[in-house]
Amino acid sequence: MAPYESDDATGAARDEDLPTGRRKAARYVVPVAVVGVAAATIGLVPALADSGDPDLPKITAQQLIDRIAKSDVQQLSGTVKVSTDLGLPDLGGLESGLMSGAAPGDGSSADPRSKLTELASGTHTLRVAADGPDRQKLSLLESGSEYSLIHDGKDVWGYDSKSNEVHHSAAAGDRHRSEQPPATPKGFADEALKAVDDTTSVTVDGTAQVAGRDAYRLLIKPRQSGTTVGAVTIAVDAKTGMPLKFTLTPRSGGAAVLDACFTQVSFAKPAASTFDFTPPKGAKVTEEKEGGRGGAPEHAPKGGEDLAKGLNGATVLGKGWTSVATFDTGAKGGVPSGGQDGALGGFLGSLGDQVSGKFGKGTVFSTRLVNALITDDGKVYAGAVTKDALVRAANAGK
Question: Which domains can be identified in the chain, with CATH numbers?
Answer without folding.
Answer: 4-287 (2.50.20.10), 302-397 (3.30.310)
